[in-house]
Amino acid sequence: MTRSRDDGAGTQDFADDIAVLCPRCGALAHVLARTRLTCPACSLHQTRPRPRLFAADGASLERTAAPDWHGPFVQIAAGPARCSRCGNGLSPPRRVIAAGKRPDNMTDAGEGRCAGCGEDSPVETLWTPLLAAAQGREPYFGTRLYLLEETGRGVVWAYNRRHAQALLDWIAADLRERGPSTGARTMAAMLPGWMKAARNRDAVAKSLNRLIDQSV
Ligand SMILES: [Zn+2]
Ligand SMILES: [Zn+2]
Fold this sequence. Notes:
Bound molecules: zinc ion
Number of helices: 4
Number of domains: 2
Structural class: alpha+beta
Helix content: 10-25%
Radius of gyration: 20 Å
């Protein structure tokens, strides 16, 4: 019987070299050290001083124009906004721009509806990078992952060959044993339930094997 241990390796442990599709030419490109996007085919090269961070709702914590973000954008309040009638906190409606497009202006004036009294009040808004779950993109430049397979149940993806192999080892194991240092963010804990379900295990393992074959 194969045994697998959730050893606390999180997705971030595989993020040193992420295989992605170049947002400019579509060739295989790389996100290195979570701060550099580089494409050997078209010489696209973008660098960031530090990895991008996101709030729990998926909005970037950076308040900049984000020329190095290639994923979707979400509209948020530019600062604290309050209802003009009752003083309740106010948010603009959650609007999203799909990946591949950019907002015309990063800042905008919008209207927010107060959840307390229903009054509409003006809100200064800005567009910021959005990290959406299960969208098949990496969280540093928002580029599309190279190792990705759409299945009937969801998207199977990996950052690189080593990551795909680690996922396969874990999925393929007959017995899953949790290690002593596991936390909520470990790789196994972060896998969606459908990938861990016994009935999907063979299909997911086949997808991961194809990703491993595809990786260079
Ligand atoms: Zn390119
Ligand atoms: Zn109000």
